[in-house]
Amino acid sequence: MNAAVIELPATQTSNQILQKILDTTREGVIVVDSTMRIAHCNVPAAVAFARDGGLELETKRLSEVIRDLDLHEAFRKAIVSQISSDVRLELPTAEKRKFDVHIAPIELSGENFSIGFFYETTQIDRLEMVRQEFLSNISHELRTPLTSILAFVETLEDGGIDDKENNLHFLNVIRRNAERMHSLIADILELSLIESGNVAVNIREIRLHTAVQDVMNTLSAKAKEREIALRNLVPEQAVIFADSVRLEQMLTNLIDNAIKFNRHSGSVTVDFDQADGRDVISVEDTGEGILPEHAQRIFERFYRADRARSREIGGTGLGLAIVKHLARLHGGEVAVTSTLGSGTTFRIELPS
Questions:
Q1: Which end of the chain lies in a sparser environment, N or C, as judged by fewer CB atoms within 10 Å?
Q2: Which domains does the chain possess?
């Protein structure tokens, strides 16, 4: 393959022409000479690869700047053999930045150089990993109830429908798993709408005590089954500004979780405070608590601190992710604090 040749106007040197080209390029670009030293680079390359806060890469050996044997060989091959190549580069840093690098020969004023274009793919790779994890999780979550439904349908088809003692039980299992799938799909659609920016909030004045009590009344039967005491400590005069439907959604998810993951005969307490110009709604339970490493990820989609127990008691694994996005939609935030053996407190912070 022939090297690219830059023809120069009489008034400008090859270095000047090349640097002007590099300065207009968004991707990082590095030019290496026959001694494997960096002859030219642009600002994006200097920002990406310079160490110790400096931005000077020129005249340094390529091996001093980027330690990757495949990359060095590709630059050398472009100079010696005039062959272009593509290399995948991952920097061994905390951020694990990744690049697709295209390296080609180039001739400047009669001398052979090699030029590398660094296309950063870090964000794309992260998004792809999230997509794959999401598909894996959703497949698993749908497979579990589907397997149960199919098994009990086969049981009914094989004569179970005539079993008067158990046929209603079989149908109840099918219905329960179908409802679980319906809830999962509804939450996925809801989260997708919120994340895509297609959900608007209608902010208005809301009496928080009444809103909390309405949610507690709805969940009282579930709390009674486990002998969980529901305590509404929000002052009756407390007023916040929020979308009433979305506030109910956030409270329902948090209080429902507090009931499900509580100790038998425990309690769930909802309180209200104001701090730093924000309204703070807290939902506290008396459960086993959450390990610090789990607390950092608890608002991720499908993330569960205790997968076995989560599947046993139900839920889609999307409730806390929905709460996080709805809080941010209000201009607020949600946070969690937890002490092992003592319980967990979730706090929704909204603008006053």
A1: N
A2: 4-120 (3.30.450.20), 123-198 (1.10.287.130), 200-352 (3.30.565.10)
